[in-house]
Amino acid sequence: MKFDSFKYSFKEALKSIKRNKTLSIASIATVTATLFLLGAITLGVANADKLITQLGSMVEVKIYLKEGISDNNKNAIENKIKEVDGIDKITFQSKEDALKDVKEQMNDELGQLTSGFEDNNPFPASFTVNVKEPLVVDKVVSSIKDMNGIDEIKDARSIIAKISKLTDSFKIGAAVAFVVFIMISLFLIGNTIKITVFTRKKEIGIMKYVGATDWFIRWPFIIEGMILGILGAVISVVALGFIYAIIINNLSADTLFGFDLVGISYILKVIVWEFLGCGVFIGAIGSIISMRKFLKV
């Protein structure tokens, strides 16, 4: 498209938006809501993935040993664990250390409940195995589960699996809602363009009569839709950034149990481009669909 043609199309698009203010505002509001939902979904998924990653790095295997296990069996278990690739750290805790930890975690009053345990200590010795990634847990468990001297093996894989399942369900539900909002946006932008076409029907006929090409006639409507989409994108990214900044600033580390949220920079690096791209796409497609059906040029 030549610059003069673009300049003409752009001016006509702005005139049309001013002429149909109510429908234009409704279209912008719907695009804003749609993209805000997309941004909320993107942030939700990014934070969920980050949570799973952080949980994965914290996954540990707790191996409780049987009473009276021999040193040879204990050393054999430890050596077997060390053979597994992806082990970050192995920590042995004796029965005495386990009892000491329990006492330290209790206040003086509750600590009296453990009096006498020194002679008859009920807490087992154990290994705590920290792994570099959750997949290593399976290797650790399968390598030692049949060895002598092991009483019980515990790990947090089931918790991570449940969080992953919830995240997947959230993604599916959010995607459905997003598609619905996309359809509404296309419908409203299409209606806005349709009304513009009808109000300029006579002018379009004259333009066609004097030799204007199909695309010369179409471009003002396409640009109008793109402008509506971009305006909705700008408003939504500002609103999302403002609200997310408030959420981050008002959530303490204790509230999040030590987990980190995706930073506000994520919106600037990723979401803003998603918004602009989707805004242009929604506006352009809404205009093209409307013209194909109602504008015979």
Chain-wise SSE layout:
Layout: H1 3-19, H2 21-58, E1 60-65, H3 71-82, E2 87-93, H4 95-105, H5 108-111, E3 126-131, H6 135-144, E4 150-155, H7 157-199, H8 201-209, H9 214-250, H10 265-294
Antiparallel strand pairs: 1-3, 1-4, 2-3
Description:
With 297 residues, this protein is α+β, with helices and mostly antiparallel strands. It has two domains: 3-55 and 160-294, no CATH class; 60-155, 2-Layer Sandwich (Alpha-Beta Plaits), CATH 3.30.70. The chain contains ten helices and four strands, in the order ααβαβααβαβαααα. It has helices spanning 3-19, 21-58, 71-82, 95-105, 108-111, 135-144, 157-199, 201-209, 214-250, 265-294, and strands spanning 60-65, 87-93, 126-131, 150-155. The protein has a four-stranded antiparallel beta sheet with strand order 2-3-1-4, sandwiched between helices. Part of the ABC transporter FtsEX involved in asymmetric cellular division facilitating the initiation of sporulation. Pfam families: FtsX, FtsX_ECD. It is a multi-pass membrane protein. The chain crosses the membrane at residues 172-193, 226-247, 267-289.
